[in-house]
Amino acid sequence: MSMLDSLAAGLALVGNLEAFLALAGGIAIGVIGGAIPGMSATMAVALTLPFTFAMQPITGILLLLGVYKGGIFGGSIPAILIKTPGTPASSATVLDGYPMAERGEAGRALGMSLWASCTADLVSNLALILVAGWLASFALSFGPPEFFTLILFSLTIIAGVSGDSLLRGALSAMLGLLLATVGLDLVYGTNRFTFGDPSLMGGLNFIAVLIGLFAIPEVLAMVWHPTGHLGKARKLGHNRVTLADYRRSFVSILRGSFIGVFLGSIPGIGAAPSAFLAYSEARRKSPNRANFGKGEIEGVAAAEAGNNGVAGATLIPLLALGVPGDVITAIIIGAFMVHGLQPGPMMFIMNVDIIYGLFLGLLISSVFLLIIGSVAIRGFRYVADVPRRLLVPVVLILCIYGVYAVNNNVFDVGVMFAMGWVGFLMMRCHVPAAPFLIAFILGPLLEDNFRQAMLMSGSDPSILVRGPITWFFWALTVITVVAILRSGLKSRRDAAPSGTPDPSPRS
Amino acid sequence: MNNRQTQTRLGLGAVIFSLLLAGLAIPRWVSSPSNVPNIVLSPLFWPYVLAGLTGLTGLGLLASRAFQDDDPTPINPPIDDPRRGALRLAGMALLMVVAMGLMSWLGMVWTCMGLLLATALLVRTRHPRAAMICAVAAPLLLYAFFAHVAGVAIPQGQLVRLP
């Protein structure tokens, strides 16, 4: 079957009202699910899965993919409006999105988030269609040593989100790495900081830590100083994203999209590290780097491009190899199986019409996301106009339900409260929370891959430099660390002649 | 507390924390089998590495004070009455503890109603009626969604059970 025949067969599958409605409905469900803190895109996809059983395979899978894409974008709405990422992937969006909302530019931040999301989504879908095979074979050659070096490199992004003091960022990251060690040891199954409590054996729930660290400190800050927000602009105004904003951020959006595509095509990395890496790279390259973390629209664009760039790319290993790239694609693989489909190389031969139908559906989804996202922004953004002393207690309750719903476990609510106090103390001491979260996500991956590599080699460390991929990531890590040190020294030198020493140098 | 004082306290805190980890917490609460062939494979290895790095970061924070001026400006904006602020925080901590304790007995919905109202009063809302309406409506709506749409088993409690 030629490519044109395959395209025609795919078009015949998706060129009907049912498929379009499934895609649009899925995106709407996803945006709503993603916009509810603690619900997450994963939960929205999992909840939608049973509804697809009675549908045609292509319709059901398009519905789930719509939920996935809508969910990743939807997470940015509460991240910008109430500093509570709806999904872990939107954590990086908080860094600049929320300060923009505080300044009364929530509409502009949300608009940029949508445009960046749609652009990255389109890039990601095109990448899936054009280079699926090549990228999948590249990802297949990653073993534990390659993953270890990749994650080590990813940890250098902490420098980009540490704010004024790199050392405080490093301290935050150490705490995150330490907290990630809680639970059963994955190699020997022994206890680590579980204190004999079975609830701790599986480690701390990521959503509880995330919401505790980002949302609860806001509640506590409000309790500490209930009138602190008065006088601060927090209205949405009529600020909309302009073409000039989009053009100015376009390079960051494209870079973030490609980072998302690359990391998304590697199983197990996920959207959150991609968003942080895209944000960090944008900060490094931007002429406005000093504004990052204070409400820079390019930061919102980069973070959203980074996390949405992953959405299409995670389907590369799924479709080409039958390997799920993340939790959501693991759920989606279940939908394939329910319909008697086995994703993998044979699917490109046996069910090529479905493959091309999915490709076409994904391309259309970017347009649907733009339309439905615009409507959702109009609907959700009025959350910002609710009096804060009314909104904050409601957010607290929303967090409790959201965190509980992840595992049906009240213990997680306690973890969220405890992390809230940790986050509040960090906020008061100006220790950034983002490095904590990145380290908490990447810590277990780093340790597991390191130990697996050591097991593979009989504890011979030379396995960590075993081939071109590891050399590439080691070189990137060294270059990044040198660049960070040089930048720190330069900022100190720049501060010295003015006679006003930097009060918080990047030391 | 100015920037330099904060840096000092963070540095000291990190050093003390790393010593506590290495000397007390890791030996007591991280178990390792006796037949681990190599130290790098031991469950103890990673926590010790992290404890060491935390200590080094703390020392770095202490050392970096030398490069900072002694600007007396506090790093956080002052509030009118810090004592009341501290009392409110203590009240919030108590509310959280009470909410955790009550959740299994009273149920999540009723506990959240009380918690929402108490938090709204604690932050001195200017809209007490709206807060009351939210306190009743928000937990009920969330219950309806999570219990009946998402299929989550929301804790019901011993007193009043919701459909």
From TrEMBL, chain A:
Keywords, alphabetical: Membrane, Transmembrane, Transmembrane helix
Domain DUF112: 21-437
Top-level taxon of origin: Bacteria
Ranges that cross the membrane: 20-49, 61-82, 147-163, 169-188, 200-224, 258-279, 318-342, 354-377, 389-406, 418-442, 463-485
InterPro entries on file: DUF112_TM
Pfam families named among the record's database cross-references: TctA (PF01970)
Name recorded for this polypeptide: Putative tricarboxylic transport membrane protein
Source organism of this protein record: Limimaricola pyoseonensis
TrEMBL record, chain B:
Keywords: Membrane, Transmembrane, Transmembrane helix
Residues spanning the membrane: 44-64, 108-123, 130-154
InterPro entries in the cross-refs: DUF1468
Signal peptide: none
Residue ranges annotated for the DUF1468 domain, each copy included: 16-155
Domain of life of the native organism: Bacteria
Pfam short name (any one): TctB
Protein's recorded name: Tripartite tricarboxylate transporter TctB family protein
Record lineage: Bacteria, Pseudomonadati, Pseudomonadota, Alphaproteobacteria, Rhodobacterales
